């Protein structure tokens, strides 16, 4: 497991008072999460989705989050992006602890500082590509920076598609529109939850190459959830979650290496589950029933 010194760095913000008053000491950090716990439900429906996670992401870095289904990847993205609240812990984005903001303050902060790309694109069907890209600015009542708009649509290869409706675009083109929409406000950080999950191999490679380019050419920070070890190989750092915890943090991930690592983690989980299962009286009776 690579040392990103997150644990040590997070200690700088250990107390509430420090967190409240803190400006990030290291301006190279885009976002820093400290001791994040997220629980859902209660009683029989209780789920410990994130168990005391501390992690930070450097500016200008493309990072991936991997892990088995249900390991907490989307939950982590949603709380980091202020789309969901934490049970406890702190998240510092550009000197603001977003866990302390009310809904209105969060909405305003999200519009300017956070971009989000969804697996299912989430474009508004009755608006053109151009209108969709400009939507965050339209909602905020802000004028677009026309130079940045043109640079963005040119980089993303969308110039000839701007007047098309989403239904007139391929999946890859729709995702490129969603990426442009996430970047139009020049946010501090972009979160992408399985952005290539609905795309074929060619469109996936295209979208990943473009996200890589946004990081390399514009120093954008992108954190992407993916199940795909090849997609992770486009990133600078891969974090693996299992059961709500970070179990690996790999710099310069390679596809084969990440695939092997995930397989080992899955095998461990299956083994642990079968061991704990075989020890419970219910499991014994379950097993005897099924035989
Ligand atoms: N709104 C919710 N209410 C209750 N439990 C939830 C909710 N959202 C997620 N969970 C639970 O939290 C855990 C983590 O879910 P999460 O969606 O973060 O997993 P994931 O790693 O993104 O999985 P996948 O790869 O399938 O998308 C799971 O056990 C899930 O059932
Ligand atoms: Mg998910």
Order of the strands making up the biggest sheet = 6-7-8-3-9-10
Radius of gyration: 20 Å
Main beta-sheet annotation: 6 strands, mixed
Low-confidence stretches: 1-24, 283-291
- Write the element-wise H/E pattern from the N-terminal end onward: HHEEEHEEHEHHHEHEHEEHH
Mean pLDDT over all positions: 87
Beta-strand residue fraction: 15-25%
**DSSP strand tally:** 10
Bound molecules: adenosine-5'-triphosphate, magnesium ion
Per CATH, the class of one domain reads Alpha Beta
Distance between the termini: 41 Å
CATH topology name of one domain, in short, is Rossmann fold
CATH-defined architecture of one domain? 3-Layer(aba) Sandwich
Give the structure's gist in a few sentences:
The protein is an alpha/beta fold and 291 residues long. It has helices spanning 6-11, 16-21, 73-80, 103-113, 129-140, 146-155, 171-183, 201-218, 229-232, 255-279, 281-290; strands spanning 29-40, 47-58, 62-66, 88-93, 96-97, 114-117, 189-193, 222-225, 237-242, 245-251. The radius of gyration is 20 Å and the shape is globular.
């Amino acid at each position: 497991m690579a040392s990103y010194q997150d644990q040590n760095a997070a200690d700088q913000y250990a107390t509430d008072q420090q967190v409240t008053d803190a400006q990030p000491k290291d301006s190279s950090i885009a976002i820093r999460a400290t001791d994040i716990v997220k629980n859902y439900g209660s009683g029989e429906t209780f789920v410990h989705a994130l168990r005391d996670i501390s992690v930070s992401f450097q500016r200008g870095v493309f990072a991936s989050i991997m892990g088995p289904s249900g390991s907490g990847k989307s939950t982590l993205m949603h709380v980091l992006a202020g789309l969901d609240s934490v049970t406890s812990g702190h998240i510092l984005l550009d000197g603001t602890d977003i866990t302390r903001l009310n809904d209105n303050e969060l909405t305003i902060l999200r519009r300017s500082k956070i971009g989000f790309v969804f697996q299912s694109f989430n474009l508004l069907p009755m608006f053109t590509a151009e209108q969709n890209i400009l939507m965050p600015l339209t909602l905020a009542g802000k004028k677009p920076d026309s130079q940045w708009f043109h640079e963005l649509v040119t980089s993303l290869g969308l110039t000839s598609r701007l007047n098309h409706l989403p239904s007139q675009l391929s999946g890859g083109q729709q995702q490129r529109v969603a990426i442009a929409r996430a970047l139009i406000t020049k946010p501090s950080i972009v979160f992408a939850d399985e952005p290539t999950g609905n795309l074929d191999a060619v469109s996936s490679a295209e979208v990943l190459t473009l996200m890589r380019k946004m990081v390399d050419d514009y120093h954008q920070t992108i954190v992407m959830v993916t199940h795909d070890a090849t997609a992770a190989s486009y990133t600078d750092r891969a974090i693996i979650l299992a059961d709500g915890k970070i179990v690996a943090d790999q710099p310069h991930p390679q596809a084969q290496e990440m695939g092997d690592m995930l397989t080992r983690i899955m095998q461990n989980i299956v083994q642990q589950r079968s061991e704990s299962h075989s020890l419970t009286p219910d499991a014994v009776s379950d097993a005897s029933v099924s035989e």
